[in-house]
Amino acid sequence: MKYLSNAQLKHLTQSPLGFELKQIFEEESIHTYFQPIVSLKTKKVFAVEALTRGPMNTPLFSPMNLFNFANEQNCLLSMDLMARRVAIKSFKQAVPTDKMTPHLFLNVSVSSILTQDHPSGLTLACLKEFDVDPQQVVIEITELQPVEDSTQFLMAIEYYRQMGFKVAIDDLGSGYNGLKLWSEVKPDYVKIDKHFVTEIDKQADKYRFMETILTLAKSLGTKVIAEGIETESELRILEKLGVDYVQGYLLKRPSPIIDSVLDYQWKDSLQVALIEEESIACLSEPLFSMPLTTRVNEMAEVFLHHPKRTCIPIVEKGQVLGMVWRRELMDLLASQFGRELHSRKQISKVMDRAPFIFEARTSLVEASREITRDASYGKGAFIVVKEGVYLGCGSFMALLEMMTDLKVRSAQYANPLSGLPGNVPIQQTLQMYLERKKFFTVIYVDVDHFKAYNDYYSFEQGDQVISVIAQVLKSSLNDTLGFIGHIGGDDFVVVLETLEYQSVCETILKKFAVVIAPFYAEEDRQQGGIFAEDREGNKRFFPMMTLSLGVLLVDTNLFKHTQRLASLATQAKKGAKRQGGNTYYLVDSRKLPPEP
Prior knowledge:
Blueprint: H1 6-12, H2 16-27, E1 31-39, E2 45-53, H3 63-72, H4 76-94, E3 103-109, H5 110-114, H6 122-129, E4 137-142, H7 150-162, E5 166-172, H8 178-185, E6 189-192, H9 204-220, E7 223-226, H10 232-241, E8 245-246, H11 296-305, E9 311-316, E10 319-325, H12 326-334, H13 338-342, E11 357-359, H14 364-372, E12 381-386, E13 389-395, H15 396-412, H16 423-436, E14 440-448, H17 450-456, H18 459-477, E15 482-488, E16 491-496, H19 502-516, H20 522-527, E17 529-533, E18 539-543, E19 546-554, H21 562-578, E20 583-588
Parallel strand pairs: 2-3, 3-4, 4-5, 5-6, 6-7, 7-8, 11-12, 19-20
Antiparallel strand pairs: 1-2, 1-8, 9-10, 12-13, 14-16, 14-19, 15-16, 17-18
Helix pairs in contact: 1-2, 3-4, 4-6, 14-15, 17-18, 18-19
């Protein structure tokens, strides 16, 4: 599709950067990354926002540089239209239609809508070309420019609505139009600028702003999307406030692939599983309690006889009723007329009726998060119950030390590039699967021609490839139960709790083929690879990276330990590499003799 006239193309050749922009238009060499928008009600991906990137390793890779320079060269509208077309095309290729059908948020600038040359019906034509339902699409209007001709603008918005699109306002609070634009457009969605989300858990004015926006949105029937969530504390506050949707690096970074697996999991988890004794019960000490009939002066005597006790729970028939804190009680009695006023009172008059109480099976992670969200953690202790019956007390300091140990252990065994479990957990997992005595599948994942790419482009680029492969593997499992580990370098392993491996392998290969292309320059994509030095120092041609998947079907009755299993998985990988990459090779252990 031609986006610029010959005169415009000729004008761009007057500068090196202009010539690069000319090539982008001629080759349609921009790329689309997708960032999920997540429903806080369902905790699932509701939509994806299409984000445009220029050619990798060029000054125009950044969307800000790309669109600003296009504007300087008087071809912003053409860039906007090309970005829209490429986004729709990429969306159709990337969306896993059998698993999810998310909405697509398309960015459209105010200036593009108000341009007289804006071609009518182009977006609808692109959707028809790539078989995307207009009702899946949300036109996201940026409000960074002032709307001077509101009549023309509102007519354009109404035209989009008549075609079946929904409308969103982007970055509310950061631009010129703000509430005026909201009241006139009456959008289906409004996206709150990152400024009002960052540290909303710490800044009361941002909390009140969000509260006000949500009240207004509810009265107008508009759904609110909070952008830029980067911390769990921010997410918790937004959940508490009742925000409809969220988007940000905490949940998932922009990626060329679309999948339903988020980087953030609401269910508490660590990279190494919390074993049973690492629940909150492991920190509980069976300390004595006092009944509700205890008087204040009697409790003071108990503290005097037990100088190391900082607190005493109040328990009746196994049920926890409260907690008495040494410091608070002593401060009360030491105050003017304190003993005269309070010493004969029942302890219920001065006890803490809302101490932290955890069920014994509560994970350390969950307990830690609950405590750190409350300012009262400074009191230093919590109560543990088992099925509602008093079990004992634990200290916050002990919990903090235990959590630190767990995080150190988790980080120790995780690969820093991919964040996936490394060799120790991989071996432990394989041994665990063998001991279950059930059939399972091991997939050895190896990247073809990775070293040549790494040497030719850069180690930084190579690291990005490794990170993307980890994303591909995570998203390819979908609902399939299994485990993903990073052996090291460009070698990964996937373990499936089933012998049904074909669909997983095909999904991995398909997704990798989509995401790897943007890592190559346009020239290298056109020729299908790069000319680089091999291990002997000879320059030769290396095709674009592919994956070789060695598949081993495991009959646990045939294995005594993981060594033979690893050897057969390596054989399967070599078989896949012999076939030329971008394929998988099967070794079925059921057809082999048992281990001697």
